[in-house]
Amino acid sequence: MNQLDLNGRTAIVTGGASGIGEATVSRMISSGANVIIWDVQTDKFKKFDRESPCIQVDMADEEAVYRALDETLKSHSQIDILVNSAGINGVNEPLKDYPTDIWRQVINVNLIGVFLACRAVVPHMLHNSYGRIVNLSSVAGKEGNPTASAYSAAKAGVIALTRSLGKELATSGVLVNAVTPTTVDTPILEQVSQSHIDYMKSKIPMGRLGTAEELASLIAWLCTEDCSFSTAAVFDASGGRTTY
Q1: Strand partners, 180
Q2: Given this model, what pLDDT does residue 200 score?
């Protein structure tokens, strides 16, 4: 594992209690960062012991996001990094059968949650003229996956939000980038049908799913000072599936 320099940096990782978020937390801690986890899954907090403070927050709830920010700022006066990893898959159904309430829930968590976290944290980064934001999108946001219209639409929105915000902040010292993974072997796959997993795997030229650790390596690098001339960009991590 290559050494990355995040010494002294303070990071918020949403959805950091499991999956790609958890792997990112681990990689950042090993690189010297102070990491605060924002997640709704309180049952998973115990495994972090005192290594990373954990705050319960529903990313689709605006008031909850600002409460989490206030709690974070009580112990950390500066926020340098925000990784938006929190997300849900929803269900696999044709659009004509897709339940409206679940469609809204997926959009609320996966897209509006990213907006709320960015809106809350960006002012603090601007005050210090420094920041790194990484938003987790998906190849589904580039290509669209059948029977996953809500997830695909939300992740496409994350790409557009990233490009817009990155350009807004381009001269501020705050850089905003997105990562578009293909299917990654994490607990979120428990929400997905095996037939859909098989479909997504068949699209990957490398012939395998990605790992959370592989994604964490890319995300962590995007949060370093070495990433200094990339913003409003989308970084592919798809085993060759998407090359644009």
Answers
A1: 236
A2: 79
